[in-house]
Amino acid sequence: MGFYLVPALVALRNEVNARFSHRDKSSDGWIGDASHAARKSSHNPDWAHGGAVRAIDVDIDDNDPAAELRLLVVEAARHDRRVWYVISNGVIYSRTFGFAPRKYTGSNGHFKHVHVSVVENPAKWTDTTRWLNSEPAWMWNPDVVSDLALVQEQFQIAAGVKKGDRKRFHGVATIQNALNVKHLPKGQKLVVDGWAGRATVSAWRDFEAKAGGTGRETTPDPVSLKNLQILRRFRGEGLP
Hints:
Blueprint: E1 4-5, H1 7-19, H2 34-37, E2 52-53, E3 55-59, H3 69-78, E4 83-88, E5 91-94, E6 101-103, E7 113-118, H4 122-125, E8 146-147, H5 148-158, H6 170-182, H7 198-210, H8 222-227, E9 234-235
Parallel strand pairs: 1-2, 8-9
Antiparallel strand pairs: 3-7, 4-5, 4-7, 5-6
């Protein structure tokens, strides 16, 4: 019998493909190459179980400015009973450590894809329960005051200036809403979801350019937030 990807991960791949039909797949993978074969890896066939492969790499270039494939897959996998560990963006989340984020020290930081390995229990391999329905419900509260430094960091991560985990903040949603109301034309409105993604960074840079900046500004600053009349929704050193 030849090697095969376990059905649980086939289900994950199918869901990702269905939701992100235009995504890049050049960094996708599941069967290990020669370098994997020379060491222990979930990408290698488990011949004791018919050649089962228990790991998949999912390319994160989703080609969808309103979505964030990396974050969606990581968060779904971290809360899934079938998963042993997840690696993405130089961070590993392992069941062994309660899926707390830890720095990954391996040679491949998995910056172009999300690596998902399922547990060694064969009973979990055939579980094809939906993966991507675990996105937490969230609603923006415009009255929440956010830490400006944390929001600035999210914009820098989204722009590729800084490495780190993507997180949702009410402060990002506050900026998104303000850009929608005071800057963007009707057909270019941002999704007010609290995630600093590519579309949000692009809209921010455009706003800064029209306000007299260079158009390359990545980080929301107190002056611009004051111009948007939302500075009161942020706190931090030197802020009210």
